[in-house]
């Protein structure tokens, strides 16, 4: 039997917690359930560089494991099943998936489940970080276990109420059902269930064969809120008197404030306060428009930025120089040598970085769509000089992230301004701020050498030079927590080696990362390194196949190491009609990717007859994530990743000119719109092959490479610089 | 300060504001109507798309003075009480939304398109320039086509 050992979200003593649980009038599980649960093996030895044996998914899940069962599940007398999720919802659909998982184990109606995003819970340590496509992978078991324990308590309570053997009872439709058809709703039983001590049925999750909601295509549980405009984001939260605030920022990346003359700005209509903060000069006004207008009236002497005077040309020159040398010799006809480069790319979520904060009376309350809320709350506390336990950080719904909301600068800024002016504020990064001062996927240079003999690749070397990706948002701490010695190896090297693998039998393989120390705000962008490294590898596979005069799909099929990858490749080949006759200037392209315990293949068709406006006209995808909790949501992730691939390969990137990001809006950051999106997309979700892996970032590399490969086949021009539109 | 009167989601609304203040901030900061989203402030991402006298427009670049005497409908005014507009229902049926932030604007753009052109072609749908950074375009297209059949 599963044992429950209550813990408190607030770190209260066990005695107090037990009292809390016993005294709770309704079933509230904040349970540590340690027995009988298969968790991932802890990383033995913790030697980076073997993603076949252990990968980033394992490491993040292992780091989360010690607190993974501290989940919050409550059943109210009104029959609502309230589930606290210690992750962020930024569009990836995990709230719906978790609602399905919990409803299924409880036999509750999905409509009865309310999912709340947990505020920052420091006791969760490394288990409140939304990244690495790890949410479902890490919490799948714990969610099911906690829900199953709750179900056991409800059945026990009904058994006692009716005086019937618990084994004769079943659960369905948010109720316990007796053999004669009588029912007791979960809401009616919750008080007794909370008091149940000796459970009369096992609190173990169902066998897979009995799962119903878990695995069923399901629409988003918050769809109605979204389509009616009721969904609230950080700028929309109702905090009485919270004042619109924007920050005048320096003209260059990480520029500083030397002096400010705010006389004219203070006299502008609607201006309430002008507050110098470390990152710029904050203006608080009656409306955001007035605040923005007043930033233009500020007279600021800006100090130089962190890469003052540097432009793309300088940066790429450094990257090229820095790329590590190959170890194999250039054996004439026997090598395929290629170089590739990617421009910087902002995350540019639709909702710019935005936070609401109220720092008064020795307390701080912050609303932010944080993917790393514990570190965010700690940073707020440090910034305003308050003890950590006086800071409450509410995790609100986020309008996209793609990695950006792992960082929390606006939460800190909003707290600083609120503290300074003694009033709550709503702090908005303008789109310009978001693109020019937000995090960037760093530019990268790749040199790759495949050495081959007799139609086989015998050595494959990939040298990836880029700027250091910033993992200071808690990711690095999680790696340490899982036993990795990141102090010696470095967080970037650790993540690179845990995520990069060659999916093919290519002989001796080495992939090396070199960080070029330039102080630019970076952050992992959907896919972390794979969006560039693995994309390059999949373009190289086409290059190698071309050298061998092999069909790209057939060559992949021969050389892929994993059966699962061959299966998704075959599937897209079949449903996408690989090899069909197409007009000149149009072509198909294909690519695969393995990561997060999952595999995916894309087949795209592109029309390059108007060379200035290439259009992906069709996208076909096959995806195997082990088990898809919500196939509808999984398909959405694959569709979205395809648009990321199209955008980053064809048109979307930014330039750095003399220390500043040139682009500042969607008018010049050319992310795909409807006219650049394929009118036809088909996603095939493979039959279950195991427990759930990751999905959110999975699709990007294969989608991007399939687009690049299709472009090369359609035009005869093999692209090496991305986005292609940058020339 | 001048006073402006318009109909907002069916209700007569009078507001005192600078004439050049974009309607978006009247809606959001003064009236608490937060369905229209800020995405760029310069009329290129279209996240705030709403209707001005039945046509799609960007409140972020439309001074309140231009709305005087007009009828403004935001996403909040689209449904008939609890009965969703067919386009909203189509959005749910196709499970369009991911992060959801752009979707009020996408829906308002689609409603305006369908009002002018009840049976839009793929090329007509391509003309919608609202950005969706989650890349829900193929479902938006499907939802518009579904709504067109209702």
Structure report:
The complex is a heterodimer of chains A (727) and B (150). Chain A has 727 residues and is of the alpha+beta class. Chain A is 31% helix and 23% strand. In chain A, the strands form eight sheets. Chain A has a seven-stranded mixed β-sheet, with helices on both faces. In chain A, strands 1-2-3-4-5 form a five-stranded mixed β-sheet. A five-stranded mixed β-sheet of chain A has the order 23-22-21-14-30, sandwiched between helices. Chain A is globular. The relative contact order of chain A is 0.11. Residues 1-23 and 31-49 of chain A have low confidence and may be disordered. By secondary structure, chain B is an alpha+beta fold. Helix content of chain B is 31%, strand content 14%. Chain B contains five helices and five strands. Chain B has a five-stranded mixed β-sheet with strand order 2-1-5-3-4, covered by helices on one side. In chain B, β1 and β2 (11-16) form a beta hairpin. In chain B, α2 (86-93) packs across α5 and α3 runs parallel beside α5 (137-148). The mean pLDDT of chain B is 97. Chains A and B meet through α6, α8 and α19 of A and α1, α2, α3, α4 and α5 of B.
